[in-house]
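Module 6 notes. Inverse folding takes a fixed backbone as the condition and produces residue identities as the prediction. Think of it as a translation problem where the source language is geometry and the target language is the twenty amino acids. Below is one complete input and output pair. Work through it position by position during the lab.
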């Protein structure tokens, strides 16, 4: 996307506000005012400093791919990225890449990854669970978070591969920038990057003393405190520490689960804390060592599941109207207890024969989920002990060790390259229980499905991956260059599946199965780049991506007698081939940036996890092929001092191929899931500076995305549109080091579905379903939020 070279985000183009919107907003604001003022008066904790950067730095985000360009700008507004594992100006990189400055993410109130992805044109995402956020770039996504299943969009933090969507949902704080690379990136970033890469780059300590602190109070009892400090510890040692804690009181009342402290339970409560520390050693001019450690904790409470249908499923709690998005009636509230931590060591050694890099990391994650209601209805067994569909318990454990060794080299003045090896050893285990019962008269009940109360499932997979790679650039002339890269990867997966209980939803029987297999495949790319002049660059590229095969994580299938052997049969690797043509242009001494990229990508052997309606069992398999053709356009303009404007648009014409089957039925021609056809983001920011070192800034942004589907069948029920999303912010800076800002996100209180489940099997008979009756459970984006933030900087 492109939050452009703007000091911050956009003014809405149109505002469609009715009296009810205004009334509800004002009521919330008055309630917040009483709480917020008290919280801010109590915020003397402030001066330890942290992010919520002053909007004085230009640019929210720019997209070298026609998406967004605004990230780590230095004093000359040159945006530096490391998309090719070396520092380059964004406008000189022949890749589709969007870059977002960490300070602008903070001032824009982009708290987590879901906030961030909503703003990126051409990128789709879902969030059926807080611990599972599938991301799609150019149509490549993974809708399965089971052990050993690799995402199509790889997530990196400081060049360390996270390896699972479990890690995706974390706080964004103390970042230097975020780079979103679109299209296959297997040559340098390795395995499972068919769709692209999201790379979070945190700030490194240096000899500059920096300190920031902020406190935020907002509606829904929001209270946040964040701080960071960085600087020299000696002449050759530097350190930094940052931390953030966020708490909210919940936004949705559950009428059915009982009361807590004499009141109905409030769902959507957040309680998240994170911290990061770094030590940097510079013992000599040619040696740079960075040691890093981070930890995060999430004990959020309540996951609201919104029911939509035409049958009241309980006499006590009749059907809540679809428009009532602040109340639900579900058996269980749900709660999380997640903790992750990691350590890493980065060593850079410069020598006469090139520069050597070593990146060593270890990450550990332990996530618990309790009493999670899956169906969003009040339906229990006759004895009242079991829910119709729920996770009483789920535990996910993940351990990752990785090592990369890389050598940057050159031959003469016209050939440069990087070569290296990579190793990953990842272990993941998931233990869970599932309750599943059909209501009286439903298909599940009349067909005798799920005769027992529980499925008990344990899945464990170890992945070992080793790769060798090289990437080089040859300057054919002063203006024309040719780049090429090759990576060969070997992935081996081995594990076990333990099925217990007689529910039949996850498990067909009680058994233990062991499995293993391996795959060796190349990834490659070639780029031809022509620099017309210092301000205009043209390029064309072709790249091939690879995502390794795997095993179904469920002991279900069409035949209980063969289920133990069925899970031993792997699904095949998935491949992508991408073609790009693009131009990067700068005009009026850099005050106008216009970039455009066209692409065509083909996918084969698409991996897909789905619920078979014939057996109501989970299946993971290759379903066929797909393609996506599109264009991404980015415009950033600074028409006068203090004023910045930006707009970014992405068009995607995606479809599944003629060989693509789901549930045995063809989905040929259907739009690829999580891939909106049209995406638009636009914004503006104006900053007025005064002679006493004070300033005032007003900024805003808007997002419009056309329909995206959660599944390959393109069911309207399982789809959503992100439309009329407006965010506004006003800030006043004073006394050189302080800033007070007021902000509102999701101004019109739009709620968008980021996860949908069809409940017909549990609620209606076959005849009722065939007649068109529907029952849906939806997970929605948060409601409107607003508040005040006080920031101090040094």
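Target side of the pair, the amino acids:
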């Amino acid at each position: 996307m492109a939050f452009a070279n703007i000091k911050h985000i956009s003014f809405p183009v149109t505002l469609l506000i009715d009296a009810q919107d205004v009334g509800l907003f004002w009521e919330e604001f008055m309630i917040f005012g009483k709480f917020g003022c008290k919280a801010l008066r109590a915020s003397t904790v402030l001066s330890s400093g942290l992010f919520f950067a002053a909007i004085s730095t230009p640019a929210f985000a720019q997209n070298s791919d026609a998406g967004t360009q605004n990230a780590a700008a230095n004093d000359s507004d040159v945006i530096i990225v490391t998309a090719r594992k070396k520092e380059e100006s964004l406008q000189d990189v022949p890749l589709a890449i969007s870059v977002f400055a960490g300070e602008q993410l903070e001032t824009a109130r982009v708290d987590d990854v879901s906030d961030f992805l909503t703003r990126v044109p051409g990128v789709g995402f879902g969030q059926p669970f807080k611990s599972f956020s599938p991301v799609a770039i150019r149509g490549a996504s993974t809708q399965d978070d089971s052990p050993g299943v690799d995402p199509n969009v790889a997530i990196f933090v400081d060049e360390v591969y996270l390896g699972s969507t479990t890690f995706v949902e974390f706080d964004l704080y103390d970042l230097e920038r975020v780079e979103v690379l679109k299209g296959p990136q297997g040559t340098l970033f390795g395995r499972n990057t068919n769709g692209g890469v999201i790379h979070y780059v945190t700030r490194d300590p240096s000899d500059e003393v920096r300190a920031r602190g902020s406190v935020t109070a907002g509606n829904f009892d929001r209270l946040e405190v964040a701080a960071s400090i960085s600087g020299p510890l000696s002449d050759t040692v530097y350190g930094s520490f940052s931390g953030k804690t966020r708490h909210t009181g919940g936004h949705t009342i559950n009428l059915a689960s009982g009361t807590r402290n004499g009141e109905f339970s409030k769902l959507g409560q957040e309680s998240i804390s994170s911290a990061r520390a770094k030590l940097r050693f510079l013992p000599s001019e040619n040696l740079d060592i960075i040691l890093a450690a981070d930890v995060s904790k999430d004990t959020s409470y309540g996951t609201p599941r919104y029911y939509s249908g035409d049958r009241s499923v309980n006499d006590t709690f009749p059907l809540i109207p679809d428009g009532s998005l602040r109340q639900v009636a579900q058996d269980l509230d749900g709660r999380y207890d997640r903790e992750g931590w990691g350590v890493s060591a980065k060593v850079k050694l410069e020598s006469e024969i090139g520069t050597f890099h070593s990146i060593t990391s270890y990450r550990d994650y332990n996530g618990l989920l309790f009493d999670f209601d899956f169906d969003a209805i009040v339906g229990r067994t006759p004895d009242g002990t079991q829910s119709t569909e729920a996770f009483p318990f789920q535990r996910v454990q993940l351990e990752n060790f990785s090592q990369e060794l890389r050598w940057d080299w050159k031959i003469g003045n016209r050939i440069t390259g990087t070569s290296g090896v990579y190793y990953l050893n990842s272990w993941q285990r998931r233990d869970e229980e599932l309750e599943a019962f059909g209501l009286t008269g439903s298909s599940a009940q009349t067909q005798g499905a799920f005769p027992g109360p529980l499925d008990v499932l344990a899945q464990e997979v170890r992945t070992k991956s080793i790769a060798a790679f090289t990437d080089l650039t040859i300057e054919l002339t002063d203006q024309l260059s040719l780049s090429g890269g090759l990576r060969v990867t070997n992935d081996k997966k081995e594990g076990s599946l333990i099925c217990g209980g007689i529910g039949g939803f996850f498990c067909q029987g009680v058994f233990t199965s062991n499995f293993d297999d391996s795959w060796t495949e190349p990834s490659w790319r070639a780029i031809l780049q022509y620099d017309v002049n210092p301000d205009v660059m043209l390029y064309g590229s072709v790249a091939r991506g690879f995502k390794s095969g795997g095993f179904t994580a469920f002991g279900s299938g069409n035949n209980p007698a063969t289920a133990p052997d069925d899970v031993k049969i792997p699904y095949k690797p998935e491949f992508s081939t991408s073609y790009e043509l693009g131009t990067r242009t700068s005009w009026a001494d850099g005050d106008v940036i216009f970039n455009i990229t066209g692409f065509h990508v083909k996918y084969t052997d698409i991996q897909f996890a789905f619920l078979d309606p014939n057996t109501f069992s989970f299946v993971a398999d290759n379903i066929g092929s797909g393609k996506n053709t599109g264009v991404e356009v980015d415009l950033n303009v600074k028409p006068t001092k203090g004023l910045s404007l930006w707009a970014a648009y992405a068009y995607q014409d995606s479809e599944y191929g003629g060989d693509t089957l789901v549930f045995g039925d063809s989905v040929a021609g259907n739009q690829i899931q999580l891939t909106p056809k049209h995406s638009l983001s636009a914004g503006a920011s104006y900053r007025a500076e005064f002679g006493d070192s004070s300033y005032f800034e007003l900024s805003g942004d808007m997002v419009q995305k056309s329909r995206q589907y959660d599944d390959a069948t393109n069911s309207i029920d399982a789809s959503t549109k992100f439309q009329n999303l407006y965010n506004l912010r006003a800030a006043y800076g004073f006394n050189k080091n302080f800033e007070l800002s007021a902000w509102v996100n999701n101004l019109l209180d739009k709620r968008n579905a980021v996860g949908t489940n069809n409940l017909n099997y549990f609620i209606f008979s076959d005849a009722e379903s065939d007649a068109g009756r529907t029952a849906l459970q939806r997970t929605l984006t948060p409601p409107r939020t607003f508040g005040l933030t006080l920031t101090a900087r040094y």
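Reference fact for the lab report: The helical segments are 19-41, 102-107, 113-118, 186-189, 443-446, 563-566, 760-763, 766-770.
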